[in-house]
Amino acid sequence: MQSSLSVLKQYWGYDQFRPLQDEIVDAVLQGRDTLALMPTGGGKSICFQVPAMMQEGICIVISPLIALMKDQIQNLRAKGIDAIAIYSGMSYREIDIALDNCIFGKIKFLYIAPERLYAELVQERIRYMKVNLFAIDEAHCISQWGYDFRPSYLNLAKLREIHPKVPFLALTATATPRVVEDIQEQLLFKTKNVLQKSFARLNLGYMALFEENKMNRLLRIVHKTGGCGVVYVRNRRETQEVARFLVNNGVSADFYHAGIALKERELKQDAWTKGRTRVIVATNAFGMGIDKADVRFVVHLDIPDSLEAYYQEAGRAGRDDKKAFPVLLYQQQDRVRLSNNYEASFPSVLFIQQVYHHLANHYQIAYGAGAGLIFDFDIIEFAKKYNLEVMPTISALKFLERDGWLSLSEAVFIPSRFKFEIDFQELYKFQVQAVKYDGLIKVILRSYGGVFDFFVAINEYEFAKKLGLPYDVIVGLLEGLQKQQIASYIKSTDKPQLQFLQSRVDYKNLYIDTDFIRERKQIKGEQIEAIFGYLDTKECRSKALLTYFGEMEAELCGACDLCLMRIHKRNMHQNIEQQVRILLLDQDRELHALIDSITIGSDEIKLEVVRHLIDDAKIKFVDGNYKWVAH
């Protein structure tokens, strides 16, 4: 077996591991269940990719983030490593072929969305795979105490039944002590084993500033800090408004949100990543998996829902270990809004039942039918159609998912896919008989290998360009091949995918776990109290974050807004004391004359220093005047 360092060098080009990575790799190679806690940008993927490459068999990676899966697969393939993904939106046939490739092919990494593990087909095929490791990314999602609980993660323990001897590696950047315990219990760790890197980011100067005029303060931050940055806002409309404000004030800026067409999103992201755009204004969906090291500031114009979410988003600053500033700007009305959103996030059972009823009607699903069906889902369109408020509707969908009625994937672009369903000889006969398809078939055969064996991602616009035909004609030809059962053709989508996991029932008979909703409300309330506590702390922002994540011995950072104020105040006190000493050594003075003679600080601070000097017996009151007596 190659050493872990030689594999790291061969495929990733690094001569040594980052802190903690080698310990995690060793634990995995010893077959030990491991929970690895590493801050954002700490290099989590290396921890499962290296040991998987050192062993025979396949590594199964569970991840809720389709965009991140696709990015990692692309990176692995660029290194000559075979990897594929299974996620919502793929057809049964696509999944069937992909799983066969994992059993009989040379696939080293299978990335799979947690909701796909519910399928009997998937569980049965995994049974026949030679699995060397189960890697669970974003592992905090399995804990109801975590900030981003995903009901689909509760199914992961079933993998133990399929391959009881295969170790689990759970990875996360954010977990409180309670979540750390819960992850290990939910995943049925044989022995508790936590490897943790400190959550401290010493190069970050955290700031939380009460600010009535956020836009002007934002402009000052951008100008003063320099470099590139991210500005997070609450909704899509604000991304455009804030970006326009920055541009109008001479800052190279652009906006980004999930409602923008894929090609345009890619262009915007590429321009920011390569430094052509200085500031990107985005909703919180932006940033996952984007490895841009030189981000100098991350500004939040609204209060995040939790400290976990804030830590992850703020942590996208300064990954090059150079000084960077995460800044949270807030007003009193932001606190009120967050509290109101909290209440809206826990709708009544009747509302949840009605959302289910509307969903089934929306997709025209008959009673007793619908199990396994997958649809594109636009929540804004759905909420408008049935006159529902968006926030409670999103929460209702999460509770329906928790109770196993449906699953909902993130919005991500899934390209069109194509596969021939007849062999080469039959296809040749068809080409001779149906001349209008001949040109398209030839282009497909020249462009893609393996198109008889598995689905390939295609681009209809490329075919149109090569054949000199309109896009609509190409789509018509592809659909024609499908109608004649010559091929399978699945059109692209960039909408979230909603899947019904059970047949439709009468909404009055719909089981909803009210105890769970009550518990979630309590947990969410505690998380909001924690973010308010972070805003209100008087000691140190970094220490407040680290204490929340269980690092009770954290020291003052010396770089956040509170530490800088404390240092400034201490320096001010020292300078005032020095002036008092010089003034009183020159002559004794009565209080008003002494205060008026001090040239720095407010009267309040001057008086505070004088009181300290009296308490320390450095000056004393004699015959109506103050006298310096310290040696």
Count of folded domains: 5
What is CATH's topology name of the largest domain? Rossmann fold
Give the proportion of residues in helices: 40-55%
Which whole number gives the mean pLDDT? 90
CATH superfamily of the largest domain: P-loop containing nucleotide triphosphate hydrolases
Neighbour order of strands in the largest sheet:
3-4-2-5-6-1-7
N/C terminus separation: 72 Å
Keywords:
25 helices; six-stranded parallel beta sheet; alpha/beta; Arc Repressor Mutant, subunit A; single chain; seven-stranded parallel beta sheet; 46% helix; Rossmann fold; 631 residues; 21 strands
Structural write-up:
The protein has 631 residues and is an alpha/beta fold. It folds into 5 domains: 4-196, P-loop containing nucleotide triphosphate hydrolases (Rossmann fold, 3-Layer(aba) Sandwich), CATH 3.40.50; 207-330 and 524-548, P-loop containing nucleotide triphosphate hydrolases (Rossmann fold); 340-412 and 495-512, Winged helix-like DNA-binding domain superfamily/Winged helix DNA-binding domain (Arc Repressor Mutant, subunit A, Orthogonal Bundle); 417-489; 561-628, Arc Repressor Mutant, subunit A (Orthogonal Bundle). It is 46% helix and 14% strand. Helix 21 (514-536) packs antiparallel against helix 22. The N and C termini lie far apart (72 Å).
